[in-house]
Design the sequence.
């Protein structure tokens, strides 16, 4: 955990983001009930994940801000590895 950037530690400590995604997938698949085949289930789950990805890309407030990684000095990056 300490290998993560300081700005990310608090957010990565919990699994709230992943739990929310999985709960939404479960809710959507429950509505369908029985899938005719595995491919149809995979398409629904894939569509849900793509939708979530698009939402995350369009948000103004990022859950994990990666801008500080671009500003990091190369020597600091080598020290972490």
Sequence:
């Amino acid at each position: 955990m300490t290998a993560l950037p300081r700005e990310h530690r608090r957010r990565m400590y919990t699994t709230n983001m992943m739990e929310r995604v999985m709960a939404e997938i479960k809710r959507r698949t429950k509505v369908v009930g029985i899938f005719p085949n595995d491919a149809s289930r995979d398409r629904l789950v894939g569509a849900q994940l793509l939708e979530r990805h698009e939402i995350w890309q369009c948000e103004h407030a990022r859950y994990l801000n990666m801008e500080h990684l671009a500003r990091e000095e190369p020597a600091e990056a080598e020290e972490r590895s």
